[in-house]
Specification:
121 residues, 0% strand, mainly alpha, 77% helix
Length: 121
């Protein structure tokens, strides 16, 4: 049976998407745990893929970053509302904390990778 090899760009795009979705799911868990207490990590695995898809579609089709951010925050709020049935203020708090944790942790990880990548051999 003859199989066509996957192109490296396809694999790298898929791997990047999956890592980004996992990262966003983890930060969603951290945000919910921070505000709501004991929550399940497994339940928050559904938050990341949809937000990562919005980011990938916005980058691919060159949407406005503000439109993409608004859509991502709306989908994030919808996901948290479905998971935890929160009222408005608590829902806004979880979404804001998720955004802040994602930005801070992402900046730290990116800086660490850039630092390691620039280290002399």
């Amino acid at each position: 049976m003859l199989q066509a090899p996957l192109q490296s760009t396809t694999v790298s795009i898929l791997a990047t998407y999956l890592l980004f979705a996992a990262f966003l799911s983890l930060t969603a868990f951290v945000a919910a745990r921070n505000l709501l207490g004991d929550v399940s990590l497994r339940r928050h695995a559904v938050v990341g893929p949809s937000i990562a898809a919005i980011a990938f579609l916005a980058a691919t089709f060159e949407f406005s970053p503000f439109l993409a951010l608004g859509a991502a925050l709306a989908v994030d709020a919808l996901a948290f509302r479905q998971l935890h049935d929160l009222d408005g203020r608590l829902l806004a708090g979880v979404v804001v904390i998720h955004f802040v944790v994602s930005v801070i942790l992402g900046a730290i990880l990116f800086s660490l990778i850039a630092l390691i990548g620039s280290a002399p051999i």
